Amino acid sequence: MAGSDSNFEENSSPFDLNAYPHQPSNGSDLAAELIRVKTENKKLKEMLSITVDRCGNLENNVFEELRKKNLRREREAESNQLFHTSPVWEESECSCADHHCCKKLRQITYKPHVTRVHVKTNDSDPNLMAKDGFQWRKYGQKVTRDNPSPRAYFKCSFAPTCPVKKKVQRSAEDESIMVVIYDGKHNHPPPFGASNIVLGSIPYSAASSPSQPTTQSLGSFQQLLVERLASFLAEDPSFTSQLATGP
DNA sequence: CGCTTTTGACCGGCGC
DNA sequence: GCGCCGGTCAAAAGCG
């Protein structure tokens, strides 16, 4: 067999006559049989080609459905984090062949001071500086596996001891949207006078560029923010005590 | 000159 | 135990 491998590369197969050039002929029956085998071989090739194509299309469809499903879950989780305080449950499935083996539920650790915000930005704006009124110092940047856009890491530098961090990354789905993840709670007064303010983990406004969210979403968003601000201030003992004592 | 940004190195958690 | 990956550090570079 050594040296015959190249015969199988292009126009031959294990059933191809060309692969066995020295095979003796035993008459018309053998010739007819060989023609039948060649025909069958051709059909099998076509079937294989069609099957491979269909498999590829099916694979693409499965990936697309999984992508949409993950996107829906992500948005639901964001909605839950913004409007609810109950833990968020996420269903995750493994990718193994046995679909019944390890479908599992796991609870996401609920972090009360982690908030995720989507910010509409100008496409031409290359930086990841979401202006929100606080001072941030960039301390790192990474390219993550699930997103070609780099993720920037910021620490709040408004106060030396403030533990708040934020991560900023363009959305993999829409590059005009920046995903900002605030982590922690500010231990200092907010910078009053700033047009865009974030208090604790609660964003007050998220516009970072001339392009603004739509009026409708901005209105409901502002209403939510006002409610959150009132709630935040009510929970702050120093604020309530100062309010009680007066100026 | 001091502050901020950049960027490669390093570390720890997690899955296999 | 090993490799991958996200997060952080810290030295160098940039900038006002």
TrEMBL record:
Q: Does the keyword Secreted apply?
A: no
The segment annotated Disordered runs over 1-26
- Annotated organism of origin: Dillenia turbinata
Q: Which Gene3D superfamilies has this protein been placed in?
A: WRKY domain
Q: Where in the cell is it found?
A: Nucleus
Q: One GO cellular component from the entry? A: nucleus
Assigned keywords, A-Z: DNA-binding, Nucleus, Transcription, Transcription regulation
Example GO molecular function term? DNA-binding transcription factor activity
Q: Which PROSITE patterns match?
A: WRKY (PS50811)
* Keyword Transcription regulation belongs to the record: yes
- InterPro entries, alphabetically? WRKY_dom (IPR003657), WRKY_dom_sf (IPR036576), WRKY_plant (IPR044810)
- This chain belongs to the protein called WRKY domain
Coarse class of the primary localization is nucleus
Domain (WRKY) ranges: 125-191
Composition-biased stretches (Polar residues): 1-15
